[in-house]
Amino acid sequence: MDKTITAYAKPLNKAEREICQLLATEIERHLPEAEGKIWHRHPVWFLDGNPVVGYSKLKDCIRLLFWSGQSFDEPGLAPEGSFKAAEARYTELKQVKKKDLKRWLGKAREIQWDYKNLVKRRGRLVRLGEGSEQ
To answer: Is the pLDDT of residue 133 over 50?
Structure first.
């Protein structure tokens, strides 16, 4: 695992640090081909240069974000922002359900919108693998 990802959680309180450590471990386990790094000051994992999953410390929780998560059609993920992202928020380690996380990570690999080329396409998202534009 990238040392900067490990370092991200060090200044957090114990509960937040445990959540981050679990998320990082599970992401690395279920998306071993993904490149994890700090991007815009938060841990993010990329597949072929496209961001697919990451997490960040918010004021009162740790937010797990899937860039294409609205297309997963999964309970437990709430829409986030004006594109296709969806999130789950955690305040305690026991809230992280590994079975759900594993399923979501599998969908993160299979269902991707092309965020890598968002600027080039002037804000228009294209779903990868289907050639459809939305």
So the answer is: no
- DSSP states along 40-58: TTEEEEEETTEEEEEEEE-
Sheet of 62-66, strand order: 35-39, 42-47, 50-57, 62-66, 86-90, 78-79
Q: How far is CA 71 from CA 19, 77, 86, 113, in A?
A: 25, 10, 9, 9
Write down the domain spans for the chain.
3-110
DSSP state of 11: T
**Which pTM does this prediction carry?**
0.90
Whole-angstrom distance, CA of residue 40 vs CA of residue 37: 10
Which architecture, in CATH terms, is 3-110? Alpha-Beta Complex (3.90)
